[in-house]
Amino acid sequence: MYRSRLLSTILLMSTLLFSATTNAEQYKSLGSFEVHYIALPSTFIQADTASKYKIKRSENNGLINISILDKKDGNKAVKSVLNGTGKNLIGQTHQLNFIEVKEGDAIYYLAEYPFTNEEIVNFTININANNESKTLKFQHKFYVE
Question: What would be the CATH architecture of the domain defined by 2-141?
Fold first, then answer.
């Protein structure tokens, strides 16, 4: 029951934050965690939502959204400490500065990433939660609208 309520909350969050044209949600199983992540242009976010979380809406500004669920505890959202980088194919690295957002039982982490059109970025994000450390790695190709 909690999982369906959490998934409903995540779905509602996604509806509020992102337009219908966003990529499908992705996740990876990392030890006892299920880590959900998405990268998208910040222009996909509604202006009032971006303002609320102090996110710069720009055709060259991306947003990384991550949530961590504890598989051993009924997929409850986990308070975590995240840090990481995005690195493009020519080796330019950008430090990710995550902010924590809590909405009801949901906890998610947002970070901005500047990009150019058709830039491919490799993300490496260190997750520290429940006395465990895990690393999420994924690649994303950004497009300017």
Answer: Sandwich (2.60)
